[in-house]
Amino acid sequence: MQNEVCRILRIRYPIIQGAMQCVSDASLVSAVSGAGGLGVLATADCPGEEVRSQVRAVRAVTDRPFAVNITMLSRTLEETVVAAVEEKVPFVVLTGGNPTPFIPRFREAGIPFLAVVATVRQAAKMEELGACVVVAEGEESGGHIGPMTSMALIPQVASVLKSVPVVAAGGIADGRGMAAAFMLGARGIQMGTAFLASRECTAHPNFKRAVLAADSGNVVVAKRRIARPVRCLENTLMKSFAELDGRCAPKEEYDMLWSAAPLRASGDGDTENGALMVGQIVGLVNEERSAAAIMEDVLAGYAALRGSLPELG
Questions:
Q1: Which of 79, 240, 279, 306 is the most exposed place for a label (fewest CB within 10 A)?
Q2: Tens digit of each residue's pLDDT (9 = 90 or more) over 204-213
Q3: Please, is 202 exposed, middle or buried when counting C-beta atoms within 10 Å of its C-beta (0-12, 13-18, 19+)?
């Protein structure tokens, strides 16, 4: 199953694993890459040495391509950039703001970059700046979200890009989602929530159980009022954010409440006060399986629909 996304990223299948804060570590990344997709290492606010350690841990398990996610919102952004460049990682995935100042450093190091975008304008800009792949992420996704749905965003991005393939993200967890994404003009898919239930995901068992038990009715968005919307499972933390909204609290209170919330969920297993970041597609995630099995099921589901769909190549 080879197409332009596979050729550019040197992977067997056009499936990218979304970088999930405090979740996408070397265990999950190496499993996805080893199974033929592109694993993406989340770095968030990790110190540079931790980034180096995780990169080396991936390479100890697989020689397949992988990527390092670099978010412009990170408090350790410079350390992460230096570590990625010095480790000569195969790819970087740029998210969370304007990466323009850092792109020349990746080019000089010979590291191609993928860009995650939430609007059509961002997509066009990232193509202009030299992205090898643009990931168009709809607001159905988990974690921090943009303003557009996948159904509206993906075809418009596919129409505006001239030479760069589009990967669809947000609300995809099975072969039907993959087929829909390809019909909208994407040439690959990115999944995050689907991999939360993988055996190789090292998130706390409490977090995994909450994911497996949830459906889309349990998912809410917080922090819209301060223009930093984030999608999570409803719990005490999310209700606390609603209380901040109700009294128009200053941004500093939101930041204090959010601080360490992702780690409380994935590391400590605190399902009430932690940020259980999941997408709206969580209702289709109801069984713990290997990352390889998850990918195989998606591909099999897509193949079952191929009679009425365009070829991947």
A1: 306
A2: 999 999 999 9
A3: middle
Residue 62 belongs to domain spanning? 4-200+288-308
Per-residue DSSP letters for 207-268?
HHHHHHH--GGGEEEE-TTTT--EEEE-SHHHHHHHHHHHTT--HHHHHHHHTTHHHHHHTT
Q: Is 192 inside a domain boundary?
A: yes
Asked, for residue 120, whether it belongs to a domain, the answer is yes
Quick one: 240 exposed, middle or buried, by C-beta within 10 A (0-12, 13-18, 19+)? Answer: middle
Residues 57 and 84 in one domain: yes
CATH of the domain at 78: 3.20.20.70
On whether both 94 and 116 belong to a single domain, the answer is yes
pLDDT at 202: 96
Q: What is the pLDDT of residue 313?
A: 56
Q: 0.90 exceeded by the pTM?
A: yes
Question: Which stretches in the chain have pLDDT values below 70?
Answer: 1, 307-313
In a domain, 313, yes or no: no
Residue 74 · residue 42 · CB < 8 Å: no
pLDDT for 308: 66
